[in-house]
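Tokens as discussed.
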């Protein structure tokens, strides 16, 4: 078992040398061999200390100037009818399998995500919803036209409007 090097003698996990909040180099002296980064890269001497991105860069990263901007669709809330029961019904319909990679929900660390094929959160028709693992759900957020056509061919056409 590894213990925090600040002197508090508490156990540390995941290969860290300090507990969260104890990672300030000025609290203790470490042997030179343990320094992974030079002092010019960390703390007050680091390149980004006291600096900010130019406002033009910040504007490009956020909002309408960003190339990934989709008219604010990601900021819209899900409708109240998009409940756990609706999500579970879609998972059951899809056999608890990711419809892209085929992994079963029992092989994953979390439940399958429910993806809107037409990327419209308010469209809760069963033919517009599909089960995907988290990795694939992230993947299908690019090249949306391709994925819409791809999933339209895989989803049953029966519609139950909620």
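Sequence:
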């Amino acid at each position: 078992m590894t213990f925090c090097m600040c002197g508090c003698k508490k156990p540390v996990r995941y290969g860290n040398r300090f507990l969260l909040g104890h990672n300030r180099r000025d609290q203790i002296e470490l042997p030179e061999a343990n320094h992974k980064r030079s002092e010019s890269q960390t703390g007050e001497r680091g390149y980004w200390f006291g600096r900010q991105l130019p406002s033009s860069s910040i504007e490009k990263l956020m909002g309408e100037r960003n190339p990934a901007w989709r008219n604010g669709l990601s900021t819209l809330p899900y409708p109240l009818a998009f409940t756990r029961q609706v999500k579970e019904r879609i998972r059951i319909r899809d056999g608890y399998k990711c419809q892209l990679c085929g992994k079963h929900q029992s092989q994953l660390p979390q439940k399958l995500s429910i993806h809107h094929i037409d990327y419209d959160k308010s469209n809760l028709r069963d033919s517009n919803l599909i089960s995907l693992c988290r990795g694939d759900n992230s993947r299908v957020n690019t090249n949306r036209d391709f994925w819409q056509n791809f999933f339209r061919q895989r989803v049953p056409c029966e519609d139950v409007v909620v």
